[in-house]
Amino acid sequence: MGVLGAILMPQKVWSGVSGTAANELQYISKRPPVADRNFTSRAIEQCIAATKPKIKDPKLAYMFENCFPCTLDTTVNFQMKNGKPDTFVITGDIHAMWLRDSSAQVFPYLAFMNEDPQLKLLIEGVIRRQTEQILLDPYANAFNDGPTGSKWSTDTTTKMIPEVYERKWEIDSLCYPVRLAYYYWKTTGDASIFDAKWQQAAQLIIDTFRDQQRKTNLGNYFFYRVTDRQGDTVLNKGYGSPIKPVGLICSSFRPSDDATILNFLIPSNLFAAESLRQIAEIGAKVLNNNTLNKQAMAFANEVHGAVKKYGIVEHPVYGKVYAYEVDGMGNHLFMDDANVPSLLSLPYLCSFIKPNDLIYLNTRKLVWSDSNPYFFKGSKGEGIGGPHVSYDYVWPMSIIMKAMTSTNPQEIQECINVLVNTDGNTGFMHESFHKDNPDDFTRSWFAWANTLFGELVLREVGKNV
Known about the structure:
The protein has helices spanning 3-8, 20-26, 42-51, 58-67, 70-74, 99-106, 117-136, 172-188, 196-211, 235-238, 266-285, 290-311, 346-349, 358-367, 396-404, 409-421, 447-463; strands spanning 76-81, 84-89, 97-98, 142-143, 156-157, 164-166, 223-224, 264-265, 312-315, 319-322, 325-326, 332-333, 375-377, 382-384, 393-394, 432-434, 437-442. It is an alpha+beta fold and 465 residues long. Strand 13 (375-377) and strand 14 (382-384) form a beta hairpin. Helix 4 (58-67) packs across helix 17 (447-463) and helix 15 packs antiparallel against helix 16 (409-421).
């Protein structure tokens, strides 16, 4: 039985009331009442109505209906400001806007923009808000909805302003907004988002990446936090482990918001190469800016070349693989973290890495095995976690990403079955669950994982209609 069977007739290995009538009673939508939803998209509602009947298993259909619209139902604040759309997006149970999360949360809705002008405006508003945030502080990962300050205002950093919720320098924080804007343009043909402010932000992204190559000095960023969580601060007076400047970009933190061990985070550097190429294409095809095009393309090639030279390492079991982190001096870290960008997610984010690429396939085998210290396998599920939550907690995001990057129908089916069976009887995805007990989970309201799960299900249903 292939993916068609997984979607339309999944194995019923979860617990619950048996019988069609009982299941229909059990699996009642957990979406907020219509009047309480933050935003309603006609196109998304039509998609849900059209997709649910194609999913014959009631629990999978119920989870899709809960998860796919979660971002719109619960996390967006959309308004028109000075004649332009403006959208603030919280992560769920944390009332702040991460550049990464907000981009990923709305990304699966891009395909519906041409059917729904209001949805298109909402996503344009995300892009415009992100542009303002990058111009405020290109090193920050999360922002407040105004100059309200945060509990992290006492962090020792090069700069902490009240508009910033947290100031952890993560390469991917600047990549995700480029990805969102690029595919918004590709989907709609609307280039109006690439105004003077966006161009200023794009140049600032390039300049920030250059600064964090640390070719001549330690750069303009350091971070120190008084905390009992070791991964929440950066050693060596906030600059991190020493590096040899080889063309790679330093990332003080991972996309999990945990500090890196070695400063050159390989999946994020590859994502940066993808983003720089997208900026280059926008420069050439939209802005007629040959300088920006050449600058961004040369930088992308430099970073990608450095990854090939320093980020690909021989593993004693799996052969040539991508290391997770390196320092340019020969030291490297064999592991993966569930948060995206991860090594597992590379074909999902980077157009130049294909699912059948030999080095990626070797890496995939490594990270989904006990050779990855953060791979956990239990009686209820297996997958990748990370130090953000600690041992034995699998992140559904890693299982979703395994399916999204797989070319094996049986493997995709197995991933979907595990995801359906490990929701802790809530009908939603979570940040993580214990490998032996899905009722033990973290973050009951985590919109990114919910929307990403919806994206996966919608993709697989679409393959079989």
